[in-house]
Each structure stands twice: as structure tokens, then as C-alpha cells.
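Note to self: keep these together.
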Amino acid sequence: MPSEFELIARYFTRATSHTVLGVGDDGALIAPTPGREMVISTDLLVEGTHFLADTDPAALGWKTLAVNVSDMAAMGAQPRWATLAAALPTPDVDWIESFAGGFFDCAASYGIDLIGGDTTRGPRAFCVTIIGEVPAGKALRRGGAKAGDSIWVSGKPGRAALGLAHLQERTTLAEPLLTACLAALHRPQPRVALGLALRGIASAAIDVSDGLLADLGHILEQSAVAARLCIPALPAAGLERDCLLAGGDDYELLFTAASSVDNDVAALAGKLDLPLTRIGQITAGPPGDLVLCDDSGTVITPAIRGYDHFYVAGPRNGIDGPRRGIPVTQSEGVQSPVPGDRDGILGQ
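Structure:
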């Protein structure tokens, strides 16, 4: 059985490309780029809360880092360095090797050096601190949205939550939607290129981790504004709508920009080969106030808004499985099958 330090040396010590001193000392040494501000973020993933016990370790390795990279994207920052702290119940070398492979695949994809961390025995959990850089004064923040701004979201939010619902046997997905949803759940693609392109365009931004409505609420509160959402082809009430509006685990970018640059944002979609959908408008009103409409303009009240680790108020807000699971009421049970693909924000 390998020791802690043998595991670190064998699986988590790699050559670095832009680090003065990496893994192996009491601390790392990094040299920030002159004229850049440093962006720092930390995320903790715990088995049974953020991921299932039987999750593929390579996919989990990728996701452990990717959720942090997404924070860099939301700030318009270039990810550069990361640390990893891991609690493991046993030193299962095959599992650890696969996890490390997925982690370093993600690191290589986004140009990140792993520069340190820690390991201990315990229930499986992973904590990453990531460090990025952004030109001074150019970071995207949550607090800049203004009345009249358009609200945009990237990609296909809701697919990760649908994939989880399928794994929990709360719905049955058909191909090709099944493959797309499981990929969104297990190997999210942080929108770093979009975040960099939005510098000087977006007035506010956030990544969708706890649910589209919940995360939009953070922008509204910090910007002291309200919003009116009219999402194209909004699904009928039920699991699919709940996944879209409140599922989370999407790691797409939700952002606002002046309506005068709508054409510029639309052009980015083609340049980046990434769907960008205008879903509403910022309005003057009580901070955090949100009006949601269907395609006909009828105001609707969503069943749930997103995930909160510590909020529990009856069966609708209890989590059945990992943190991003869509809660199920006692009357809902297993949902009817969702078709293989569809038009609208979740579809093609």
C-alpha cells in the first residue's frame, strides 16, 4: 500500500509551465504577470452532496477542476494555477490514477499548473483553490447590471440536471439527448473563451452553478436591479422546466450587456461556435425582484429557484441525491420520458 507521499509523487506531481516553484516544498512560488490582478476562488466537492459514489473517477477528476475554472470564466480571468486538497477513504491506486488523469486533462486543456495541496484519510471530498489573472480593472463582476441591459446565457442550461435525473431514475432520456446530458453533468466545459471575450462588453456575469434563477438573483441583488425573463420555448411545468430554471451544475455563463451591443454578443456566438440566448431584460425595481413569463407573455411562478446547502423546508426543498439534483415532491415520482432532443434552449 503506497504512502501518502508516494501517492503525491506518483499521481499529483507534474512539470509546470509558468510556476517558479511547484509541488514538493512548504509552499509554492508564483510570479504574477505585471499589470494583472489576481482572481482567487475555492470550491469543495463532497461525495453524496456533489457527486455520486459510483461516479467515474476520470470524469470526477475533470469536474473537480472544471467547476473552479468556470469561476475564472465568470470573472473574465485566465486560469493559471490551482491547489488540490483531497480526502480519500482508502489509497485505491487504480481509482486515484484515473482521477488524477481526468484532473490533469482538464488542467492541460486550460493551461493550469497544479502547484500544491494536501491529502488525508476520510470520506471522499476534494477542495480546489484556483488562481487566475485579469488585466487590472477589467474583471467581470456581479454588480454592474443596469436597467435596460439584455440578459444572456450560454450553452444549454438544464442538461446536467436532466442527466442526473436520469441516473436517479426520475426520468428516462432517449438518445441523442441522453449522451449530451450525461456529458454536461460529468464533464462540464468552462466557458473561458467567452469570459475573456466579454471583457468590455458584459456589464455583469456569473456562472450557473446553483440554478439559472438562483444565480441571476445574485446579479440582481448585487446590482440593485430587477429583471423580466421571457425564455424562448420554455418547457411546460414539470421536471424539464425545473432543470432549466433551477437545476444548476451547468457551468454556463449568465451575463448582462447593454442592449446596444446585442449584435456584438450575437456575433460572439458564431465566432466561438457557442449558443448564446437572450432570455430577458434588466428592469428598474426592487433589488432581486424577478418576473418570469412564458412565450405568450403570461407571468408564471417557478416551483423552485435553485439549490441552497442549508435551506430545508419540506419535500420540495429536500435533495434526493447529490447537490444538483432537482427536488421531487411526494406526488411527482418518476417523470415521463423526455424526447431525444427538442427545439428551444435545451434542444438543438
